[in-house]
Design goal:
- The protein folds into three domains: about 80 residues, Arc Repressor Mutant, subunit A (Orthogonal Bundle), CATH 1.10.10; about 100 residues, Periplasmic binding protein-like II (D-Maltodextrin-Binding Protein, domain 2), CATH 3.40.190.10; about 100 residues, Periplasmic binding protein-like II (D-Maltodextrin-Binding Protein, domain 2, 3-Layer(aba) Sandwich).
- It is an alpha/beta fold and about 300 residues long.
- About 40% of the residues lie in helices and about 20% in strands.
- A hairpin with a 4-residue loop joins strand 1 and strand 2.
Length: about 300
């Protein structure tokens, strides 16, 4: 029988692949984690992790043990949470999304999650792009599916769930509207409608609303909007253009605007993130469910 620290240390290290972050998550010292893992490996009689000065990776046996232990551990954790509350609802998990297509994936995952974990409550809310981190940092959202990149010390990022081709939203009469595709260099020849970035990391803005083309030419910056409908209005009125996920055309097509694909832009990647500290115990099982739901996208 595994001791609790052995179990938690193994599963957390299997997720983090970093001894320091594992120790921080479990509120123990790094040396305690190292000792616990070595003790577990001696009991099993084989290494579970391969370590060198730079990386930590799971051995094939380690991956097998992780896959077998994780579902049972998550179910036990959820059951203990339910028992401690003394009612039929174990715990509520609140999910956030930006982009209707992200919301659709969360809804499908939630339907599956409720079947597997019937005594749980799931809330879903839309996150405004002008404040992509605020709801999570306030504790209102436990897990969020959002546009990457996200690189914040207090937020843990997970897998990319899907990637969308990038396009340019232009007015119907714009010279780009009849093209089969555009290039990132073309942005220097138009005005880019952007977002109010007071609460948005600069690296995120530079990735999605660049200020310069790849060759270094400045991109004229237009109105800074607060909500997506404002972008549609500005573009339809000929005030500027906007970068966009091409899938947005399925949800936001309207007279006066045209979606033109880029032929040289990186995709818009949508991934999961959750607070590094005080993680809701329902986050790990939901991560598994949403990964399964994403396979059927």
């Amino acid at each position: 029988m595994l001791e609790r620290l052995e179990l938690e240390a193994f599963l957390t290290l299997a997720e983090q692949l970093h001894f320091g972050r594992t120790a921080e998550r479990l509120h123990v010292t790094t040396s305690r984690i190292s000792q616990t893992i070595r003790k577990l490996e001696r009991r099993i009689g084989a290494p579970l992790f391969e370590r060198n000065s730079r990386t930590v990776t799971l051995t094939p046996l380690g991956r097998q043990l992780r896959d077998e232990l994780r579902p049972a551990y998550d179910q036990i954790s959820a059951s203990i949470t339910a028992a401690s509350r003394g009612n039929s609802v174990e715990r509520t998990i609140t999910l956030g999304f930006s982009g209707a297509w992200s919301g659709n994936l969360l809804v499908r995952a939630t339907e599956l999650f409720r079947i597997r974990y019937p005594h749980t409550a799931v809330d879903i809310e839309e996150i405004q792009l002008t404040d992509p981190l605020g709801r999570m940092r306030s504790g209102a959202v436990d897990l969020q599916l959002t546009e990457f990149p996200i690189a914040e010390p207090d937020i843990t990022t997970g897998a990319i769930m899907f990637a969308e081709p990038r396009g340019l939203l232009v007015p119907q009469g714009h010279s780009f509207a009849t093209r089969e595709s555009v290039a990132l260099e073309d942005l220097a020849d138009t005005t880019l409608v952007t977002l109010n970035d007071a609460l948005i990391p600069r690296y995120w803005m530079d990735h999605h609303f660049p200020r310069r083309t790849p060759s270094g030419r400045p991109i004229p910056q237009g109105p800074a909007t607060t909500f997506w409908p404002e972008v549609l209005v500005h573009v339809s009125q000929g005030i500027g253009v906007s970068t966009v996920a091409l899938r947005a055309e399925q949800f936001h097509a309207r007279p006066g605007i045209v979606f033109v694909p880029f032929h040289d832009a990186p995709t818009i990647d949508y991934g999961l993130m959750w607070p590094s500290a005080g993680r809701n115990p329902l986050v790990p099982p939901f991560l598994e469910v949403i990964a399964e739901a994403a396979q059927h996208e």
